[in-house]
Backbone:
């Protein structure tokens, strides 16, 4: 969508932030599967927060970031693309917002069911669960820093900040497409996206 509306630097920005939090979510899923002795059936999981506290925290942060909650990298990159989309078509912006909301809707249940729900003990997972969980929990804790602070490379110009990734890519973009939205419209779109992300992440 970003490339389609000419938001080239915003698209690269989102691919970058997406790499941060999606990689962490995959690592977290691997941590859960490893702790469960190879079990991948979500119906046989639950209540892993106590045994995997670092996995829980980092996956929760990853879910918040991919949902576009304000302050995290996913919020800034998604907002840039949606703002450019709104300039071209409010209807297309609506579908972009809907897709963004579905992202949160799909990721939140994993944390709720797997890490907060009731643990379903069974013969396959019980023997290896406690032994593996404690040794595996610290394997990727440093990964969360990149998506927590990654948004600083593309802070909005209308906030008065320097958009590093946009300025860095500017010489490479032959067809410039700077945003012409009024600041009040950008604030409105940002507010709508923020409220949607926060509601779906609760």
Residues:
């Amino acid at each position: 969508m970003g490339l389609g509306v000419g938001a080239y630097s915003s698209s690269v920005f989102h691919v970058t932030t997406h790499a941060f939090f999606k990689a962490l979510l995959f690592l977290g899923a691997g941590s859960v599967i490893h702790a469960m002795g190879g079990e991948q059936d979500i119906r046989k999981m639950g209540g892993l927060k106590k045994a995997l506290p670092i996995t829980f925290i980092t996956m929760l942060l990853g879910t918040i970031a991919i949902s576009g909650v304000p302050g995290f990298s996913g919020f800034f990159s998604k907002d840039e693309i949606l703002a450019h989309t709104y300039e071209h078509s409010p209807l297309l912006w609506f579908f972009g917002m809907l897709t963004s909301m579905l992202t949160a809707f799909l990721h939140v249940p994993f944390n709720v069911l797997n890490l907060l729900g009731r643990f379903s003990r069974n013969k396959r997972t019980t023997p290896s669960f406690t032994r593996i969980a404690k040794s595996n929990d610290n394997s990727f804790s440093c990964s969360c820093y990149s998506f927590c602070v990654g948004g600083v490379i593309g802070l909005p110009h209308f906030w008065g900040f320097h958009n590093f990734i946009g300025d860095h890519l500017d010489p490479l973009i032959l067809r410039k497409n700077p945003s012409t939205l009024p600041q009040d419209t950008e604030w409105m779109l940002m507010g709508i996206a923020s409220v949607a992300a926060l509601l779906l992440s609760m």
